[in-house]
Amino acid sequence: MNPVQLQNALQQGVAHHRAGRLAEALAWYQRVRVAAPRNFDAWHLSGMIALQTEASTEAVSFLRRAVAVNATSVEALLHLGIALISAGQVAEAEKTLREAVRLNPAFVDCWDKLAYCLKAQDRLQEAVGCHQRAVDLDPKRAATWCNFGLTLGLMGQNEEALKCHRRAAEADPKYSEAYFGLAQALQRMHRNHEAVAAYDRFLILV
To answer: Which of 196, 169, 168 is CA-nearest to residue 184?
Structure first.
């Protein structure tokens, strides 16, 4: 393929991808990968489809190739980290996500996923530091507060966990997981009446 044909093929893939026709999109991306093995977008987008279809092994393979082509793409590093987590390679995911936050310390999603990696390795205090970075960078993101609260709950810091889940609910009153986390924290504190109300709110939203 010449450069114009490559671009057209990639655009065809993207159009199918956006329309949810993942098999067709992947076929177009494959054509580009065969014709231009160092085309970053084709590898990256193929990895995204593999993530969407929960094909974690393929996602890791595709996204490693994308990072090999462009080692400074923070988005590709993030997605590779997510794929590695899905594949059960948590320590490798940690290394990948640490490189991502080194390249872009303001990328909230990378700090959030790095916290998950550390939590999965039972390194809760280190995870707290990453959660703190994430909420400092974007204090209006409900999921980030909720994840912070869940980690604090595992540490038995129920008052602090409760504050995080309240911040999640304030950031997005329709975010159901905030109320589930709130209910759990209240239950651990034996504030059962409030916990029931939070569970009720959770059930209304799911």
So the answer is: 196
Higher pLDDT, 134 or 6: 134
Q: pLDDT value at position 6? A: 84
- pTM equals 0.90
The span from the CA of 176 to the CA of 78, in Å, is: 25
Q: How far is CA 131 from CA 9, 110, 144, 146, in A?
A: 40, 10, 7, 10
Do 145 and 178 contact (CB within 8 A), yes or no?
yes
pLDDT at 2: 79
Calpha distance 118→116 (Å, rounded): 5
